[in-house]
Amino acid sequence: MYSNGEGVPKDPVKACEYFRTAAERGYLLGQYNLASMYEEGLGVKQDRKDAFRLYVDAAHKGHGPSMLRVPILLPFPSPQQIF
Predict the structure, then answer these.
(1) What is the predicted pLDDT for the residue at 9?
(2) Do the domain assignments include residue 4?
(3) Residue 54 CB-half CA count within 13 A
(4) Does residue 22 belong to any structural domain of this protein?
(5) 58 inside domain
(6) Per-residue model confidence (pLDDT) at position 7
(7) d(CA 41, CA 73)
(8) In terms of pLDDT, which residue wins out, 51 or 5?
(9) Which position among 31, 40, 51, 54 has the lowest Cβ density within 10 Å, counted as fewest Cβ atoms?
(10) Which residues span the domain enclosing 61?
């Protein structure tokens, strides 16, 4: 809703709050959406490391779209810088 303004004014900060809550409760789509917000710097400070970690966690749980994002972020930063 808040991420794209469906029925409410567009508010990326509020969208991140909802995505974070969903991610903390184990919802894969919440993890994916929050990772996307971190990757793009929408509603939060851009942080590719946090985006990568969220994508990897969701990918390990079988989330296909997250699996596709992991290799795209591998060079930014390298795996050695994250782990």
Answers:
(1) 81
(2) no
(3) 25
(4) yes
(5) yes
(6) 83
(7) 14
(8) 51
(9) 40
(10) 12-82
pLDDT of residue 80: 67
- Collect contacts of 46-52 with beta carbons under 8 A, ≥24 apart: 48/73, 48/76, 48/77, 49/77, 49/81, 49/82, 52/77, 52/82
**pLDDT band at 15, cuts 50/70/90?**
very high
Report the predicted TM-score, pTM, of the whole model to 2 decimal places.
0.84
Which of 58, 10, 68 shows the shortest CA–CA distance to 34? 58
Cα distances (angstroms) measured from residue 9 to each of 6, 33, 38, 52: 7, 18, 20, 28
Calculate the CA dihedral of residues 33, 14, 49, 47 and round it to 10 degrees: 130
How crowded is residue 63: how many other Cβ atoms within 10 Å of its Cβ?
18
Q: What is the pLDDT of residue 74?
A: 78
The total number of structural domains in the chain stands at: 1
Residue 45 predicted with pLDDT over 90: yes
In a domain, 19, yes or no: yes
